[in-house]
Write a structure and sequence with these properties.
Blueprint: H1 2-21, H2 27-31, E1 36-37, H3 44-47, E2 68-71, H4 73-76, H5 82-94, E3 104-106, H6 132-142, E4 146-152, H7 168-178, E5 182-186, H8 195-198, H9 200-208, E6 214-217, E7 235-237, H10 246-257, E8 268-270, H11 283-295, E9 300-302, H12 311-317, H13 320-326, E10 335-340, E11 346-353, E12 357-364, E13 370-375, H14 376-379, E14 387-391, E15 396-397, E16 405-410, E17 415-422, E18 425-426
Parallel strand pairs: 2-3, 2-9, 3-4, 4-5, 5-6, 6-7, 7-8
Antiparallel strand pairs: 1-18, 10-11, 11-12, 12-17, 13-16, 14-15, 14-17
Helix pairs in contact: 5-6, 7-9, 10-11, 11-12, 11-13
Bound molecules: 2-acetamido-2-deoxy-beta-D-glucopyranose (4 copies).
């Protein structure tokens, strides 16, 4: 009898555990009706594994799709002030980027004075933010946008302003009183304390304010945050800081790819902010950067001076079809599914989308133009499946359906990005 009880208890515990920790419905089930074949093969669930994505997320209702907006760091670093933040908000509106979803205006490091005030509160730098953050938040909110701020899970920020460790409650309450909508929380001067101990207190402090605030962990991937941060933040950095170079961007893409199965609505892997438009990469490289970030369900936080963008920069970051891949409600991170060529530089990246579709990127990381072919096997499609293809950079359908593979010529460091829609086939009822 006792053994039976233990057995039943264990069974129930296991079932609950699976329900909580894994995706309840695996992808293939949702992709494969019994009456209709959507053309996906048995290896589909293995290729696009989502089993590590917990449904027990932060539960503040945010990040159902990756966050979109702008952040001051990549272009301005410490050279910020309330004028440039306001002008950026104005530019998000006047360029139409806000209407495409770029709504967070995020101030990075250097907004605060070097010391807390006599009551121990953070103070905006009186020289650069003389009107204070509340006034800035009101301005930003008046435009229908949201304001993000920055602090650090340590004694100081990376630029040696006061950090928030042991001040979580005060600082969260202050941010909420200003009307802040987003907190990026950095990892400098962390006193050698584990991030698993330093990041949850701010989560709880933000929650206790009663204001819904996006919580972005910037832990640099040091302690593999994908393994634990789903219950702590809405996104977590998986890597070191990006810099405006091809080597940095490609290195970071590969590291972020390793954690694909842990991302989903409520909590995303963060391979850091966009460098598109900052001048260190060419048009093809920036287009690849944007395409792969969109496919990986990375936060799309523009990092250039959007008051002064080139037409090429605007064309890249305003591509509605690529943004739609990033914001797709299915919320499954795309990943690298096939490589060939010298040093694996010819690559196929892909990810499932709602509506039984696939996003596919052919990415040429070699130094010469080449043809890259995506076979149906690596994409998790049954051979013989007829697929219609839309080109997201040409904004047109590719003529003629493909039935076994699809290949295209891709320039050096460039990519092509598509949506593949397999033709559904009714199964015979018997
Ligand atoms: C504000 O910052 C911008 C960008 O760094 C700079 O060009 C401008 O001169 C600054 N304005 C003031 C008043 O400091
Ligand atoms: C605080 O956390 C609870 C429990 O997860 C959640 O239901 C609630 O929406 C959160 N509130 C805010 C303001 O984030
Ligand atoms: C940019 O990142 C790459 C790759 O991580 C690194 O090798 C390089 O030193 C960095 N460059 C700068 C200027 O920090
Ligand atoms: C605008 O950007 C161009 C480069 O694209 C640069 O040469 C110019 O100085 C910038 N203007 C301002 C006002 O920042």
């Amino acid at each position: 009898m006792a053994t039976m009880k233990v057995f039943v208890f264990t069974l129930i515990w296991c079932l609950l555990h699976v329900g909580i920790e894994g995706r309840v419905v695996n992808l293939l089930q949702s992709f494969d009706g019994s009456r209709i074949s959507y053309g996906f093969s048995n290896s589909f669930n293995r290729i696009f594994d989502t089993s590590k994505y917990g449904i027990l997320q932060l539960n503040n209702g945010l990040a159902q799709t990756p966050q979109m907006g702008w952040n001051s760091w990549n272009f301005f670093a410490c050279n910020i002030n309330e004028t440039v933040i306001k002008e950026t908000a104005d530019a998000l509106i006047s360029t139409g980027l806000a209407d495409l979803g770029y709504v967070y205006v995020n101030i990075d490091d250097c907004w605060s004075a070097a010391k807390r005030d006599s009551e121990g509160q953070l103070v905006p730098d009186p020289k650069t933010f003389p009107s204070g953050i509340k006034a800035l938040a009101d301005y930003i909110h008046g435009k229908g946008l949201k304001l993000g701020i920055y602090s650090d899970a340590g004694q100081f920020t990376c630029q040696v302003r006061p950090g928030s460790i042991y001040h979580e409650k005060d600082d969260a309450a202050l941010f909420a009183s200003w009307g802040v909508d987003y907190l990026k929380y950095d990892n400098c001067f962390n006193l050698g304390i584990k991030p698993q101990d330093r990041y949850p207190p701010m989560r709880d402090a933000l929650n206790a304010t009663g204001r819904t605030i996006f919580y972005s962990l910037c832990e640099w991937g040091v302690d593999d945050p994908a393994l634990w941060a789903g219950k702590v933040g809405n996104s977590w950095r998986t890597t070191d800081d990006i810099n405006d170079s091809w080597v940095s961007m490609t290195t970071i893409a590969d590291i972020n790819d390793e954690w694909a199965s842990y991302a989903g609505p409520g909590g995303w892997n963060d391979p850091d902010m966009l460098e598109v438009g900052n001048g260190g990469m060419n048009y093809q490289e920036y287009r690849s950067h944007f395409s792969i970030w969109a496919l990986m369900k990375a936060p799309l936080l523009v990092g250039c001076d959007i008051r002064n963008m080139t037409a090429e920069t605007f064309e890249i970051i305003s591509n509605k079809e690529v943004i739609a891949v990033n914001q797709d409600p299915l919320g499954v991170q795309g990943r690298k599914v096939y490589v060939s060529g010298t040093d694996d530089c010819l690559q196929v990246w892909a990810g499932p989308l709602s509506g039984h579709r696939l996003a596919v990127v052919l990415w040429n990381r070699c130094s010469k133009a080449a043809t890259i072919t995506a076979g149906w096997g690596p994409l998790g499609l049954e051979s013989g499946t007829s697929v219609s293809i839309r080109d997201l950079w040409q904004h047109k359908e590719v003529v003629g359906d493909a039935v076994a593979s699809y290949g295209a010529r891709v320039g050096a460091h460039d990519c092509q990005m598509y949506i593949f829609t397999p033709q559904t086939v009714a199964r015979s009822v018997n």
